């Protein structure tokens, strides 16, 4: 099911959420202009490669001119396909504005970046020897979802099912996002005994980054004032 709208008013202009979406789109346009070999070098330079951080790579990889920890940030703005970026930006647009409304612009930006970094580190913890670039805003957005489900568990989410007759349906956030988190967690656990593929998960999906980002978002959100906003008052 694809979320297309949430019934949750916003009382500020979500400038940071919009800026993050624009930045992700700009980086993706840059990727589209690169030749395959250039794109591979680009990913190994700016995406997060777990074995480069742990100095445990078993294959020769071009060394990045920058410290590997920087890729914990830059990897959040890279995407591997149109479906990848469209899905991520859709989730960010729907859920990010409300969390930004609660935290404020600056704290939301810090929250987003830190959640993305911790999500990547979670993925690296379960696949420290992976030489495959890990990229995407999914981990940071998972943090947004973790904060959202705490702050707005009863907010109605309009979903479009993948059925022969796609009829929109409405579910409380706690059911939709809770189910999303459980699927990421179960797939992550199921992948522990599976060989690494594109970031340690079969099919190229970094389930542990999603699960980790969600948990860290649920922890960091309240610490940064998720429940002390104007909406709460």
Explain this structure.
With 233 residues, this protein is mostly helical. Helices cover 56% and strands 6% of the residues. The chain contains nine helices and three strands. A three-stranded antiparallel beta sheet has the order 1-2-3. Helix 5 packs across helix 7, helix 7 crosses helix 8 and helix 8 packs across helix 9. The two termini are 33 Å apart.
Percentage of β-strand residues = 5-15%
What order do the strands of the largest sheet run in, or round the barrel if closed?
Answer: 1-2-3
Order of helices and strands: EHHHHHHHEEHH
Overall mean pLDDT stands at 88
Largest sheet: 3 strands, antiparallel
What is the tally of beta strands? 3
Taking Cα atoms only, what radius of gyration do you get, to the nearest Å? 18 Å
Number of helices: 9
Low-confidence stretches: 195-203
Would you summarize the structure shown here?
The chain is mainly alpha-helical. It has nine helices and three strands. α7 crosses α9 (207-223).
SSE order and pairing:
Elements: E1 2-7, H1 15-32, H2 36-46, H3 50-54, H4 71-74, H5 82-103, H6 105-126, H7 138-151, E2 156-160, E3 169-172, H8 173-190, H9 207-223
Antiparallel strand pairs: 1-2, 2-3
Helix pairs in contact: 1-5, 5-6, 5-7, 6-7, 6-9, 7-8, 7-9, 8-9
Task: Supply database-style keywords.
mainly alpha, globular
């Amino acid at each position: 099911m694809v979320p297309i709208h949430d019934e949750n008013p916003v009382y500020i202009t979500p400038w940071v959420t919009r800026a993050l979406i624009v930045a992700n789109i700009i980086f993706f346009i840059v990727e589209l202009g690169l030749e395959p070999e250039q794109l591979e070098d680009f990913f190994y330079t700016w995406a997060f490669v777990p074995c480069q951080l742990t100095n445990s790579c078993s294959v020769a990889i071009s060394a990045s001119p920058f410290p590997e920890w920087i890729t914990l940030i830059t990897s959040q703005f890279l995407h591997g396909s149109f479906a990848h970026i469209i899905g991520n930006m859709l989730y960010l647009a729907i859920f990010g504005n409300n969390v930004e409304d609660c935290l404020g612009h600056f704290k939301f930006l810090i929250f987003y970046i830190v959640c993305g970094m911790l999500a990547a580190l979670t993925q690296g913890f379960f696949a420290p020897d992976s030489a495959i670039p890990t990229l995407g805003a999914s981990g940071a957005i998972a943090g947004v979802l973790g904060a959202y489900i705490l702050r707005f568990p009863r907010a109605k989410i309009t979903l479009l099912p993948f059925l022969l007759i796609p009829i929109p349906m409405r579910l409380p956030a706690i059911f939709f996002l809770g189910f999303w988190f459980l699927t990421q967690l179960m797939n992550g656990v199921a992948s522990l005994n599976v060989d690494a593929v594109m970031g340690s998960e079969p099919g190229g999906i970094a389930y542990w980054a999603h699960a980790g980002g969600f948990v860290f978002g649920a922890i960091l959100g309240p610490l940064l004032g998720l429940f002390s906003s104007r909406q709460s008052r």
